[in-house]
Amino acid sequence: MLKFTDKIICGDCIELLGAVKEPFIDLVFADPPFNIGYAYDKYKDTVKSKKYIAWTKDWMGACANALKPGGSFYIAIGDDYAAHVRLLGEELGLAARNWIIWHYTFGQQTKTMFARAHTHILYFVKDKDNFTYNDHAVRVPSDRQLTYNDKRADPRGKMPDDVWNTYSRVCGTFFERQKWHPCQMPESLLTRIISVSSNAGELVLDPFIGSGTTAAAAIQLGRKYCGIDISDNYVDNTRTRLRNLKNEIRKKDGSSDIFNARETLEIKRLFVDMSIPVKEINASKKLLGLFAQQFGLRMNNDKAYDQKDIATELLEYSAWR
Ligand SMILES: C[S@@+](CC[C@H](N)C(=O)[O-])C[C@H]1O[C@@H](n2cnc3c(N)ncnc32)[C@H](O)[C@@H]1O
Prior knowledge:
Blueprint: E1 7-10, H1 13-18, E2 25-30, H2 49-66, E3 67-77, H3 79-91, E4 95-103, E5 118-125, H4 143-146, E6 163-164, H5 187-197, E7 203-206, H6 213-220, E8 224-229, H7 232-253, H8 261-274, H9 278-283, H10 285-299, H11 307-314
Parallel strand pairs: 1-8, 2-3, 2-7, 4-6, 7-8
Antiparallel strand pairs: 3-5, 4-5
Helix pairs in contact: 2-3, 5-6, 6-7, 8-10
The chain binds S-adenosylmethionine (SAM).
């Protein structure tokens, strides 16, 4: 499907994907407007509940139509419609695998209720017996390894829980923030989903590409991408974002730096996932050893990485934690 591959397309995802004759997508990540009054430039984010639910069914159906038989489908959604999405998935014949809570560590301040600080991510597959799941790419060191020195610990680490609490919301002041879009998913959250549920060279679709985060993560992980948005403005800006990113990767990979762009991304991702301050990791032979081991497992190649180089790379993130 050359028309869609490595493209950011301006249009309505329901029309574009509903017309597809042959499924060609390996992984869908969808973060639709939540119907909570966000100020998008073209889409009006307050519609009657009934209309929103019917629209949700339409776009979910269009995505499922384009998804290959072994494909996976992740949907980010707010409290008000999470249950509807779960049921609509079933209605469309999808198999539910996880109901993930992304706890984004701090919410917007409120006076009359508890501050909302989470989003639901519903994870479906098209065929419950046939799907990609690269567990090695997302495992993290376990408490048995980190704290208890327990010999029973699996040396490959443990699977993360279904409550994700190490990925902060992308606030206005963050370096990662694309200021021209009102809401943006963190790249580390997308890299977790893409690395576990797709393989290199496969095609990742985001039908509501917004600021382009899904495509940016897919490029860095060596996947193909397709992004759709109804706003020509967001599409133009996303194309620029991706062009700049591709140039940065080319520069990094052509430089004499020890780690290439992919390795740098994976070190950053593991650091975020482990949530331990750089100072603490670098001061402990055991922690640095576990970090290096997990990084090697995630890279899944035959390269031997030097712990000293990893410790130096980690210094880049000292200001974060
Ligand atoms: C919540 S935002 C997505 C943000 C994105 N995940 C990111 O990280 O930047 C939803 C996006 O859906 C777009 N949109 C709304 N209706 C659409 C439709 N029918 N087809 C394609 N895009 C649409 C909006 O313009 C908006 O950019």
